[in-house]
UniProtKB/TrEMBL annotation:
Pfam families: Hexapep. This is serine O-acetyltransferase. Its EC number is 2.3.1.30. One of its GO terms (molecular function) is serine O-acetyltransferase activity. Belongs to the transferase hexapeptide repeat family. The lineage of its organism: Bacteria, Pseudomonadati, Pseudomonadota, Gammaproteobacteria, Pseudomonadales.
Length: 258
């Protein structure tokens, strides 16, 4: 038991830079208190003492503002930051190293008995105000954006945002490297292209960089074919892109970041 408590405290230090010392964490973190009360209520629930389990869970809600049904299964190093307004349903399952922010709901969409709440695999992060509703799985390492309403499965490592929740497909590392190389070549930092957040301008710039890369590869292939036929047409240099032409764009990108 004490080993698990030590893990919980260390988990706070790893994920909250505001934590200063163990005494402060022990006394001032309602998310931690809610988890410990839930472990007691879940133990009572497992032994069939349902009313006592619900009563201890209700006491935890009064004290912390966090409602975790005693039937919910919670993994190791579960971290609730701020916590007020969190609701976790009876058949919810939470893996290890999961992080929830305030106002999150792990709820159901049916009154039928059985599995009706979501499963969060290891390392999932759920932003403030998000609602995850239904008996599906959010894959390991996935992120749910603030205020998103997710009603379908989220693949491992993906990011889901919006209402209704939609999965943002992250580019492969190879594609990101190509985009970065093209951006550096033309002297422009395509802000946000490699970030997880789905900035529509960054996404459009990323697609343009992909297009430029494809055009360059096609031109190189054509030049190679012409050279093999004895033509020197492709020996001409492409017009130079001057960095000063992009200074204003870079400045606007920096302002957008801040």
């Amino acid at each position: 038991m004490f080993e698990r408590m030590r893990e919980d405290i260390q988990g706070v230090f790893h994920r909250d830079p505001a934590a200063r010392n163990a005494f402060e964490v022990l006394t001032c973190y309602p998310g931690l208190h809610a988890i410990w009360i839930h472990r007691l209520s879940h133990w009572l629930w497992g032994f069939g003492w349902k009313w006592l389990a619900r009563m201890s869970s209700n006491l935890g809600r009064w004290l912390t503002g966090i409602e975790i049904h005693p039937g919910a299964k919670v993994g190791r190093r579960f971290f609730i930051d701020h916590g007020m307004g969190i609701v976790i349903g009876e058949t919810a399952e939470i893996g290890d190293d999961v992080t929830l922010y305030h106002g999150v709901t792990l709820g159901g969409t049916s009154w039928n008995k059985g599995k009706r709440h979501p499963t969060l695999e290891d390392g999932v992060i759920v932003g403030a105000g998000a609602k995850i509703l239904g008996p599906f799985t959010v894959g390991a390492g996935a992120k749910i954006g603030s205020n998103a309403v997710v009603t379908r499965e989220v693949p491992p490592g993906a990011t889901a945002v919006g209402i209704p929740g939609r999965v943002i497909v992250k580019s492969s590392d190879e594609q990101e490297a190509k985009r970065k190389a093209i951006a550096e070549k033309i002297g422009f930092d395509a802000y946000g292209v490699s970030e997880d957040m789905p900035d529509p301008v960054a996404r459009a710039i990323g697609q343009l960089l992909d297009h430029v890369q494809a055009v360059e590869e096609r031109l190189e292939g054509m030049c190679g074919a012409l050279k093999a036929l004895g033509s020197d047409y492709c020996a001409k240099e492409l017009p130079e892109l001057r960095e000063e032409d992009f200074v204003e764009v870079k400045s606007d990108a920096g302002d957008a970041r801040s």
